[in-house]
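Narrative of activities, Objective 1.

The group set out to show that a structural description can be obtained from nothing but a protein's sequence at a throughput compatible with the screening campaign. Below is one input-output pair from the validation batch, recorded exactly as produced.
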Amino acid sequence: MATSEEFIPVGKISGAFGVKGWVKVYSFTEPRANILQYSPLFLSRQGEWVEIKLSGGHVQGKGVVMGISNVTDRDQVQPLIGAELAIRKDQLEPAADDEFYWADLIGLRVENLEGDALGQVDHLLETGANDVLVVKADDQDKDRLIPFVLDEVVKQVNLEQQLIQVDWGKDY
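Output recorded for this entry:
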């Protein structure tokens, strides 16, 4: 049985579409239609990842709709609403030297140039100008928001050491 660490969420089923069992999907991919390119795709069902096959799909308005093989009517969709869709990590193309997948950054320790521990990456935010690391610190009530700007703020990302080094003050 595969563990959740082997999977990267790429979307979530948000509703039913039509009467033939298609689903509305909120895609986490950029561009959103990329979710349709992954094969196989996996669905979270009662805590387990189940492989699904698509029978079709396309962009519909601001979202994506897709058909899942063996789901043929609207009643079969209802229990699937809210289920996460994912791919295996090994389905991703390797990132370029100065690029990182968000999933690889989550959980990394963050420290500044002085060696002060700032916390651990909880998640990232997309702001338009640049992505932002949301860092949870043990000694603080609120999260630190650190711009993910390579060279300027983020000096080094070391995946082997599980560490991001930033030019950021402990009291920011």
